[in-house]
Amino acid sequence: MTVHRHYTLTISCPDRAGIIAAVSSFIAQHGGFIVEASYHTELEAQRFFMRQEIRADSLPFEADELRRRFAPLAQEFDMSWQLADSAVKKRLVVLVSKQDHCLDDLLHRWRSGELLVDIPCVISNHQDLRSFVEWHGIPFIHVDMTDKAAAFDRIAALFEQHRGDTMVLARFMQILPPMLCQRFPGRIVNIHHSFLPSFVGARPYHQAYLRGVKLIGATCHYVTDELDAGPIIEQDTVRIDHGDTVDDLVRYGRDIEKTVLARGLRYHVEDRVLICGNKTIVFR
Amino acid sequence: MTVHRHYTLTISCPDRAGIIAAVSSFIAQHGGFIVEASYHTELEAQRFFMRQEIRADSLPFEADELRRRFAPLAQEFDMSWQLADSAVKKRLVVLVSKQDHCLDDLLHRWRSGELLVDIPCVISNHQDLRSFVEWHGIPFIHVDMTDKAAAFDRIAALFEQHRGDTMVLARFMQILPPMLCQRFPGRIVNIHHSFLPSFVGARPYHQAYLRGVKLIGATCHYVTDELDAGPIIEQDTVRIDHGDTVDDLVRYGRDIEKTVLARGLRYHVEDRVLICGNKTIVFR
Amino acid sequence: MTVHRHYTLTISCPDRAGIIAAVSSFIAQHGGFIVEASYHTELEAQRFFMRQEIRADSLPFEADELRRRFAPLAQEFDMSWQLADSAVKKRLVVLVSKQDHCLDDLLHRWRSGELLVDIPCVISNHQDLRSFVEWHGIPFIHVDMTDKAAAFDRIAALFEQHRGDTMVLARFMQILPPMLCQRFPGRIVNIHHSFLPSFVGARPYHQAYLRGVKLIGATCHYVTDELDAGPIIEQDTVRIDHGDTVDDLVRYGRDIEKTVLARGLRYHVEDRVLICGNKTIVFR
Amino acid sequence: MTVHRHYTLTISCPDRAGIIAAVSSFIAQHGGFIVEASYHTELEAQRFFMRQEIRADSLPFEADELRRRFAPLAQEFDMSWQLADSAVKKRLVVLVSKQDHCLDDLLHRWRSGELLVDIPCVISNHQDLRSFVEWHGIPFIHVDMTDKAAAFDRIAALFEQHRGDTMVLARFMQILPPMLCQRFPGRIVNIHHSFLPSFVGARPYHQAYLRGVKLIGATCHYVTDELDAGPIIEQDTVRIDHGDTVDDLVRYGRDIEKTVLARGLRYHVEDRVLICGNKTIVFR
Prior knowledge:
- The structure is a homotetramer.
- The first copy, chain A, is an alpha/beta fold.
- Chain A folds into two domains: 6-85, 2-Layer Sandwich (Alpha-Beta Plaits), CATH 3.30.70.260; 90-282, Formyl transferase, N-terminal domain (Rossmann fold, 3-Layer(aba) Sandwich).
- Chain A has helices at 19-29, 63-76, 101-111, 130-135, 148-161, 178-183, 204-211, 246-269; strands at residues 6-14, 34-42, 47-55, 80-85, 90-96, 117-124, 140-142, 166-169, 188-192, 215-222, 232-239, 273-276, 279-282.
- A seven-stranded mixed sheet of chain A has the order 7-6-5-8-9-10-11. In chain A, strands 2-3-1-4 form a four-stranded antiparallel sheet, with helices on one face. A two-stranded antiparallel sheet of chain A has the order 12-13.
- In chain A, strand 8, helix 6 (178-183) and strand 9 (188-192) form a beta-alpha-beta unit.
- In chain A, helix 3 packs parallel to helix 8 (246-269).
- The A-B interface holds A 40, 42-43, 195-199, 211-215, 217, 231-237, 241-243, 245, 278-282, 284 and B 40, 42-43, 195-199, 211-215, 217, 231-237, 241-243, 245, 278-282, 284.
């Protein structure tokens, strides 16, 4: 848990010798104190990935000035990069249907200060969770799904209007249209209730029950226009046995869904996840 | 760990009230002492499954007499059943290729007395593991695979000639022909190096690497004529991350393959696995 | 998940041959349909333990009549036993301090219908969680701890006045006096934030950090008059590493505490836990 | 799995800004290509820890020249450091008693090329494992323990005579005298058959059984002169239940002991473990 304000610098660029030296020298030259540093080379893609946390008070200027000064170096190495400031909280717009286990888990982490984000609103195609959300002082917005196209346009508009950084599908149970997925690449996080790539699509616990697997799982992933096929952020499994019914699987599944979503979201919010093709690098 | 000689009675029959009472009264009436008892009803199939371990020395007669006396009750309830005697070791015929991690693991459990079976021979399509197998005093039989049909006929013949109860594919790396699979239903145990149903077929670790999963797994299952689709006995998973190459996955995989195969085989050998359609009941 | 009303018969008695036969014959003779049956012999104690779920609608009479008819058999075998009716919900009185992760988890499971109990009140030595509890429509009772002896007398009185079956210490952070522990044996369930017997007492995450362990854990146990030494119901662990601070351990710990408490409580509430000396038999 | 020859540079020094920059610039200035890099600051100790793998063929000189050139920088930052060459295999001297599950596991990993070390000899206080060790072409040395002091002197002498880098206690079942522990700090690796700090000393599975824990574990640690209290490298746990006897615990334990020892040894051999007081930093 980082207590001091810090900047998180994430970089992706073509791999070559000297990148770490160049970046760390740049930081050192301004007196920057590196709290955490992680590196990875993706061999097939020949790309280098990097994440550094720098204590804000170790630098003699603010985030914008740091960005300005870093830009020439970034250009030299042909970097995709961004600098996040821990003082600027990410804004999560959460989408739910009727099931509230993931929502309950997220809101608890939010109100206890474990998940350091802003939640400008919760959007749902049902009214069931209004009271619970509003008890937290968070606006609850109901979107009618009768006209799906119009509904998704409205969701996209609400997301932008609330200046959302990330859209979280916390068991939303609706398939997003490709248009929406393509519009916010790497910004829509879903929790799927199976250990992907097993049991894509509807009723995964039922599929798992019929196949007679001995473990079930959950997968947190970025949404792309191919159903349940986007880059995986986090997964986990739990043991079941022959005595468990589909209802038991659903029950075990709830626990693992909320844990996996919470972990995946935390990595995402702390800028620990970098995307490379259809895979993720997660600097835990 | 059972130290005393015991009989293991496994039963499958149409579900109805009174089965447990009938069977346990039968055993009690002969003074039989039940060491372990497990029950399960498969709701969809409306079948009842049962496993009981009875101390041999608590009964006034031998296994054959017990079988003779139990037969009428079994008929009354329309049972599929069998009675195994712990004094009669199961005979495992093990098939391997070049990789020896599962074989090493099995032979260690065998020679240390943990896996109470006889291994009449090890069959391989390569010569590499001859010395290791023969050091254990176990015959090693090489089968040339140039003519696949002839090779599998020979394997089937060797299995029967050595009075094998179970054929264990300990990373055999050859697909068995349907004829062979159908000939020994519920008697061929395979270890597949993925968490089925994900990554069926060849090079599962490579498939897993390309999909970017965050856990890999292994599956111990009965072989049927549909590739990697037979009833699952045991599975497990292990965490990987973006830093792991395919070679790392293979290395992690070896550990989980041998553990999952060992557990699955143990359940099988101790008559803890009952098959219901394409699923297993595992009375651990 | 059991959907039909059922009776749960739990038995503990000196071990001997014929117990299963006697009990299952008794049930069968009244047409009782056994949904789930589990047995265990504790070798050192030479005691036999048994749990059976019987469908209520398969019997021609109610729970009280079943109890009356079963009593002679129970006496014959010198049984400690009880018969629970799934239609009569257990009453949990929950004690908390300021931390709400376990409480949030329990109340979510309760309001979603996963945890089938009544919660007549939540008792706390702080006011912080009043609003959250009252939003659920559950009375929140503040107990001042200035005079500890008086406070615990009041807690005991409140527990009895609300006809509590089980007192749940959901991170209550107060050590119960021996008098209270002895008064409700097997009825007070605590969640301790370490993998017992490691790190008994205060600040277990701090102790774990100093020792440099690579996993931390949580333990759900019955409270006895010896601190953190009562019979263990459930435990689990989670991996940490050198990069994790004490605050990180506390954060990981919260997730495992709530999961372990939820599992332990579920076993307890479903009468799956039988106590034998300082150990538990948990018929999962 | 690293395929190319590489140098592993491990560093520990007082924490301050600019260390990463200084070291990575030094490497970059000689064209060094960093394959893997890890950093950690131990806050209480105010020490910085670092590990870098550099491809050997990216540098214009050999390991000794690299060491010579790095020395002034190391002195400037007051570093404890070492540079390992992957072409120079570590030499493990393995000590065993009668139980061979850890030995079997290590020798399999060694002969399959997974564990890249030399094993100059195996030392034992029993003759049981001679044949198995010698089948591998490894000298087996029996040491009589009648005179313990003399025996441990001989073990120390054998270790030095065989130029051992690390002494591995693979279930050696003898307590090393403090003299020996102090003579080879950070160079003796033990596997203890419990989840330390629970169940220190003799018969940990028996202790675990009596306490009624629901998980058992194993711990790989450096040996110090305080019994079972040295820096922990790796730990893991496995679930047990009330039906498991002490013999079952021993059996489950064997699997976890060999896995934990193998992982811990791998980290040690790859110079991934740095010691800080009584804790370890493990750069996995």
